[in-house]
Amino acid sequence: MLQAAPKSEVIINLSIDGVGEDHNEIRGVRNNWTRALSTWAQLKQLKRQYSNLTLGVHTVISTFNVDRFPELCEYVQRELQPDSYITEIAEERVERLLKSCDTSTDKGVRARALIELLLASGCRVSEAVGLDRAQCELDREARTPGDGIRILDEITVFGKGSKYRRVYLDDRSREWLQKYLATRRDDDKALFVTSRKSADGSYRMTVWTAEQIVREAAKRAGLAEDVSPHWLRHAAVTFWAKHDLTSAQRLAGHRQISTTQRYLGSSNAELKAFYKRVTRDA
Asked: Is the pTM of this model over 0.85?
């Protein structure tokens, strides 16, 4: 690319969220820091050969790195010496992602509903696509709530380790789920469906399709980083952790939840109250 378009400026931004092990923990990937530095070194070599290559570093500031951001900033400027250093607040990127969905179309409404669900609940993508609409919609005989949204504010998902977990939905995610279901003209039991029929006769959305929907929305939003459903889950947990880390761990259903519960006396009712409090105060 650099050779083929010598008069065009090629910009590559490397995402760095911490120094050393901090970066690995935030990304949830072992040895990610080492690989990032290796990539940067190779890009630096290319820059010596091609004057049309611009190298930048991009950092998303969140609860997990805000306290150590000065250290990270100093490291980037002293050791990496990029041509540009871009920082961004996590919440701003989320809003850009949501607004990228073209909600004048049925597919756009579906994309918005999926992203809203992932953000509100912190569900894993496999948990989200595994949901049935009956798990989310009020029974036909049930009275419509005062807000007019006939989507439950708490649902049970079947998660990692074959465990069930209760998750909660805010008003915005409930509203978009209702709008999406109103576009449906099928009787498939799955909450999220596509036009492609699977081997079992269902039109249930696959994990791969959900991942593509999120990535395509990220591209439209102009987000440089590879945004995935897991990124949305990370964003949700980050938001909760600003208020109460231990409750956030329970809401997320992390592997260490049994250990956390021994120190945390919150009941399901208390967890629901915590969730509503922080979403209301946002």
From this structure: no
